[in-house]
Amino acid sequence: MHGPASAGWLLVALCAATGAYCLLRMRSTVEEQRRAAGGEALMGFGMAGMAVPTAVFSPPVWTWPACAAVFGAAGVHALWAARRSPHHLHHLVGVSAMVYMAVVMAAAPAPGHDQGHGHGGPEVPLLTGALLLYFTAYVLLSGVRLVPAATAAGAAGTAGGGAAGWGDRPELAHACRLSMGMGTVAMLLTM
User: What is the dihedral of CA 115, 97, 137, 183, to 10 degrees?
Assistant: First the structure.
């Protein structure tokens, strides 16, 4: 990822923490939540790896095609799983964005080489712009949905109902998806 190293490290920390939390969510007793958490853990750790600043570590040339292949396989799985749950459609867009970013990073010149942008400044490709619009809207909508979920969960917990395990709380899953959406927006902005 190109950009300031401090912002890159913050993005690495956010994505790695999200991936680790999603791994813990895989201990849920609800099968669908375990399945979704596994895909989200892959996304979190993949984003963390892709966000490492290039000034610190320049990965070997085979890294980006390998990332594209892994996320391409996850995309096929998400496409198959979308028959059961609409959440997998968002996951499909997310892994498609990861494949796109891996392909762009593979084609990007090494740091320090002439970028060849000319006098007009860099142009934003259409696909990058479309993904930015999608994930920006997703982040805004997820943030709005998170506030009522936290209030409803707090009210349900005080009503004396059975307390859900921390891995089964919907507001934590929403927060996880929100942080990955924000990370995706940040990564797309540096493309």
Answer: -70
